[in-house]
């Protein structure tokens, strides 16, 4: 009788796993075959060839489907933080923009609004002054992309928004932060379907493996009862896998050692890079003060409490007297308000815990940014009007500051100091906006001296 040769089960398991993985990949491609728009927006230039500008007629209230779809993605990725279609957010509502201004004005405004304001364009200056001289950033978008945005805005004019929707097309109320990487309903449904499918495939794979192990053990028991097996067959049948050979192997020990060293090195570097970085820091304050209630619901201006934010190097912590301007009459029985009374009676300051703190080696001037630069509080502090307990929203790292200086146009209007500088800059750089870094805002000595 021919000798019986038992094949290792590992080959069968590997073939089975590859088969299931191939099926899962095919199903994933089938589910993801439908075109989807990136939730991070569309990079400038990505839609330049998708739709010719002449195919869009925003002034007439329309445009083809491709242009409107591209405009939707571009709006969410570039405009939704400050604009809505039918509501005023940080900037004006965009409904009717194609009727108010021609595309020959809209395109250069989006590309470099500061240059148009500096040129003295009447409508540009009017918008700039109407919205507290808040400078709109410049966007490196093509003419077709800007036209697509206007087409989408035109298609959304007058549409009612539901309780979980918003006119800016993001599903987020003005001033609120949406979840990072949020997906729309269709993509979320597809994602859930894929998760269920992968779980089912994993369960099927486990069941098959267990079944094969049981069958293998039954076959071994049957073979052990046979008497026509020679010595080699019995040796194969009775062999046991020696796990000690794995952990005693020089190669395995070397790999484990290298992985361990790399893991320790990575964690050490991450720890060193994180020294002084307190993004997300949210300490408990001695008095439960809600910015959401005061700055959000009651719309108290930041400068009412932080009185020096527009005229001093630092934004001061408000004194108890400022609190008493209102709370000497309002909610006087509140336990939290009584803490303010006790501090005043004892002539002791309230021990607020500082949240935003730069190292001594870095110079920062609040008034230079808020008064001269016209920077809004939310630019650095995030949606402060939605915070019950304030936390550090931005990383406040050197790289974060430098990027802002590179991207933020400098407000030069009405300041003769910049006239010649702007002319020289425009002559050598063309359409590139005159940013803070153009005026030396990234030089080391600006912040370190």
From TrEMBL:
PROSITE patterns (UniProt xref): CYTC
Region of interest: Disordered: 158-184
Pfam annotation, one family: Cytochrom_C
Single GO MF annotation: metal ion binding
Polar residues bias spans: 158-169
Cytochrome c domain boundaries: 66-157
CDD domains: Cytochrom_C3 (cd08168)
Annotated signal sequence range: 1-28
InterPro entries noted in UniProt: Cyt_c-like_dom, Cyt_c-like_dom_sf, Cyt_c_III_dom, Multihaem_cyt_sf
Superkingdom of the source species: Bacteria
Gene3D superfamilies xrefs: Cytochrome c-like domain, Cytochrome C3
Protein known as: Mono/diheme cytochrome c family protein
Organism, as annotated: Hymenobacter luteus
Lineage: Bacteria, Pseudomonadati, Bacteroidota, Cytophagia, Cytophagales
């Amino acid at each position: 009788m021919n000798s019986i040769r038992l094949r290792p089960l590992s080959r069968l398991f590997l073939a089975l796993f590859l088969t299931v993985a191939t099926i899962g990949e095919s199903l994933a491609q089938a589910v993801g075959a439908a075109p989807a728009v990136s939730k991070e927006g569309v990079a400038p230039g990505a839609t330049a060839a998708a739709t010719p500008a002449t195919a869009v007629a925003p002034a007439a209230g329309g445009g083809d489907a491709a242009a409107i779809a591209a405009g939707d993605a571009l709006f969410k990725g570039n405009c939704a933080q400050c604009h809505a279609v039918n509501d005023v957010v940080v900037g004006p509502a965009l409904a009717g923009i194609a009727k108010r201004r021609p595309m020959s004005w809209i395109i250069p405004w989006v590309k470099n609004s500061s240059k148009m304001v500096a040129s003295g364009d009447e409508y540009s200056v009017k918008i700039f002054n109407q919205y507290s001289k808040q400078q709109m950033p410049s966007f490196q978008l093509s003419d077709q992309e800007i036209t697509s945005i206007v087409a989408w805005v035109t298609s959304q004019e007058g549409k009612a928004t539901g309780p979980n929707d918003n006119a800016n097309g993001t599903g987020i109320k003005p001033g609120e932060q949406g979840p990072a990487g949020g997906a729309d309903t269709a993509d979320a449904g597809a994602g859930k379907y894929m998760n269920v499918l992968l779980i089912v495939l994993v369960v099927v794979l486990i069941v098959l493996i267990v079944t094969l192990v049981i069958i293998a053990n039954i076959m071994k028991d049957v073979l052990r009862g046979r008497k026509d097996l020679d010595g080699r067959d019995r040796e194969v049948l009775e062999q046991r896998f020696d796990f000690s050979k794995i952990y005693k192997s020089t190669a395995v020990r070397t790999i484990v050692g290298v992985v361990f060293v790399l893991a320790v090195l990575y964690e050490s570097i991450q720890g060193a890079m994180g020294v002084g970085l307190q993004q997300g820091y949210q300490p408990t304050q001695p008095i439960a003060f809600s910015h959401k209630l005061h700055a959000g619901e009651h719309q108290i201006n930041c400068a009412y409490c932080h009185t020096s934010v527009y005229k001093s190097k630092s934004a001061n912590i408000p004194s108890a007297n400022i609190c008493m301007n209102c709370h000497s009459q309002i909610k006087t029985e509140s336990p939290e308000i009584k803490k303010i009374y006790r501090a005043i009676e004892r002539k002791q300051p309230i021990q607020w815990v500082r949240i935003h703190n730069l190292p001594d080696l870095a110079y920062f001037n609040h008034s230079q940014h808020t008064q001269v630069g016209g920077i809004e509080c939310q630019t650095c502090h995030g949606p402060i009007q939605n915070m019950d307990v304030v936390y550090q929203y931005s990383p406040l790292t050197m790289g974060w500051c430098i990027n802002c200086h590179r991207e933020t146009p400098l407000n030069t209007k009405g300041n003769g100091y910049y006239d010649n500088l702007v002319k020289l800059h425009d002559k050598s750089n063309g359409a590139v906006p005159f940013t803070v870094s153009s005026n030396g805002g990234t030089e080391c000595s600006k912040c370190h001296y």
